[in-house]
Amino acid sequence: MHCEFPPERALDPPILTQHKVFSRAVDLIPPTMPGLPAPLTLSAPPKILKPRGEVSHLNRGGYNLQEKLGWSLSEYEDIRSFIIHLAPYWNKLSNADKEAYKQKAAAAHLNSSSSAQSVPGSD
């Protein structure tokens, strides 16, 4: 699996959301201009509610995680093996390092979301 991440950018201080009026418009992405590529839309997939019971305890009211996620067997196994490989490294990190990583990931997600909504070449 090969992942490519955009470079990190300095963040502006957050806007005070209690003073901002948010639009109810569904389509906030501006239309593209002829000759320019369409902007990327990076929206988070809908969250999957946790089913009743325990995962893999089918005989005791549990559920099959792969089926509930709706993933193919190969996709499920690839992600499962990646997490199993990653878990020992994550567990060795201090809480401060984990929090810093989560903040950087959230900032990167915000940056990619805001750049996806801008028209390319308008900078």
State the helical fraction: 25-40%
What general form does the structure show? extended
Distance between the termini: 32 Å
Q: What is the H/E order? A: HHH
* Rg, alpha carbons: 20 Å
Based on secondary structure, the structural category is mainly alpha
Number of helices: 3
The strand count comes to: 0
Query: Hey, roughly how much beta strand do the residues contain?
Result: under 5%
Q: What profile does the largest beta sheet have?
A: none
**Average pLDDT over all residues:** 74
- Flag low-confidence runs: 116-123
At a glance:
This protein is mainly α and 123 residues long. The protein is 38% helix and 0% strand.
Structural notes for this entry:
With 123 residues, the chain is mainly α. The chain is built from 3 helices and no strands. The two termini are 32 Å apart. The model is unreliable at 116-123 (pLDDT under 50).
How do the strands and helices of this protein lay out in sequence?
Elements: H1 65-69, H2 73-92, H3 95-116
For the structure shown, list the relevant keywords:
single chain; 123 residues; mainly alpha; 3 helices; disordered C terminus
